[in-house]
Amino acid sequence: MSVEIRNPSEGELRKAMKAVEAAFGEEQKEEDLDRHQKAMPRDRFFVAYDGAVPVGTTASLPFELTVPGSELATGGVTWVGVLPSHRRRGILTQMMKHQLDDLHERGEPLAILWASEAAIYGRFGYGISAPTVQLDADRSRFSLRDDPGPRGAVRLIDREEAGKVLPPIYDAVRRQVPGFTSRNALLWDLYRLADPEHWRRGGGPKFYAVLEFDGEPVGYAIYRIKLDWQEGFAKSQVRVLETCATSAAAERELWRFLFGIDLVVRIQGRHDPGSPLFLMVVDPRSLMLRVTEGLWLRLVDLGAALTGRTYATDDSVGMEVRDELCPWNAGRWRIGNDVARTDDDAELELDIADLASAYLGAFDFNQLAEAQRVRELKPGTLQRASDLFRTARPPYCPEDF
Ligand SMILES: CC(C)(COP(=O)(O)OP(=O)(O)OC[C@H]1O[C@@H](n2cnc3c(N)ncnc32)[C@H](O)[C@@H]1OP(=O)(O)O)[C@@H](O)C(=O)NCCC(=O)NCCS
Q1: Which CATH number, 3.40.630.30, 1.10.10.10, 3.30.450.20, 1.20.210.10, labels domain 143-282?
Q2: Atom 4 of ligand 1 has which residue's CA nearest to it?
Q3: Fewest 10 Å CB contacts: which of 60, 175, 201, 250?
Q4: Are 345 and 323 in contact (CB under 8 A)?
Q5: CB under 6 Å to ligand 1: residues?
Q6: Mind spelling out the 3-state secondary structure of 154-172?
Q7: Cα–ligand 1 centroid distance for 90 (angstroms)
Q8: Which atom of ligand 1 is least distant from the CA of 87?
Q9: Residue 317, CB half-sphere, CA atoms under 13 Å: how many?
Q10: What residues are labeled active site?
Q11: How confident is the model over 365-394, as pLDDT tens digits?
Q12: Domain 4-108 architecture
């Protein structure tokens, strides 16, 4: 179907944002539209117009994404929706192409997103790049093994103080962990610290807890409590919105605090697969960890993306990469410390989406080959490529966007 894809004018933006209500079935409150309008540069917001009617949207927030050894400009894709009256006619396909061309022209070598459904984005070259884990822990079974005993102190602080204390902790961790995105003061204020009543979904207000060792902030947790009483007994849940810890000891003390909150039976939230918590407790099963595919990543500009990360060995590997949607990426590359196009024989063959799965260190090439996602053309290359891309820890993205 023929639609026009373009940036909305200043006067059209709100109506276009409002159109997404029908795509997701959720009311967009005026207060949230104000918020989104402040956060979203209009030239990064694309609308599919059927005549004068906005029938689809996609947008990207400007982030710096932590990649192994560095940070790269990255489009954080969001606001993806097509009206139910216009679905399955290729509008998303047209918008995805338009957006990738836009990011390419901007010189942003990566795009990332969270998918509402896991089957949507693989066809556009996005790969599973940072799986996440959901925690739904039974508080009564929590106990630390080989517990060295409590350390430091937790202080509950108000939103204003949180705005000063939390960002430096986040940034210290962000620089170490591939998958973290930069979060400027506006994003902290408008989203992570903000706490409008209608975001609570039955829970209480946000609490901001900072952990200090010798008076120095070393970690924090943002959480809510969903109160629940049944026949005289409290069965509340702690909903963890974000934790950040600058060391394993800080992480242990944050969880000690969260699992110590009274009147609570379950602790729930998104969890970092690189966290040591699973190995720190006596009863790891009781954490009830459930893996989901997490963050999707697209190599918009393969050359710049692969030049922009560091490697674990001095080797280089010849790869034949398929990429129909972004033909500038397709072809034969030598990948390692000097990334370049090559005429040499390829040693591996793979799709751009599967290269994205190895890019942040989530999966190695042996795993990808076992799942028939990579073909080894020269024996021994899977191991060499895995060694080359190896990272110190699994990637993780704590940001909602
Ligand atoms: C997901 C959504 C944006 C798709 O838009 P659309 O315009 O219908 O998509 P297209 O017509 O371009 O579909 C392209 C291909 O993706 C497939 N596809 C689209 N949505 C899909 C889904 N939810 N699950 C699996 N496949 C899907 C189509 O079948 C089509 O496949 P084909 O090329 O083999 O025929 C739309 O259904 C929507 O708005 N859903 C609700 C909101 C939402 O989930 N947004 C995504 C937020 S991350």
Answers
A1: 3.40.630.30
A2: 92
A3: 201
A4: no
A5: 23-24, 80-82, 87-93, 115-117, 119-120, 123
A6: EEEECHHHHHHHHHHHHHH
A7: 8
A8: 8
A9: 27
A10: 121, 401
A11: 999 999 999 999 999 999 999 999 999 999
A12: 3-Layer(aba) Sandwich (3.40)
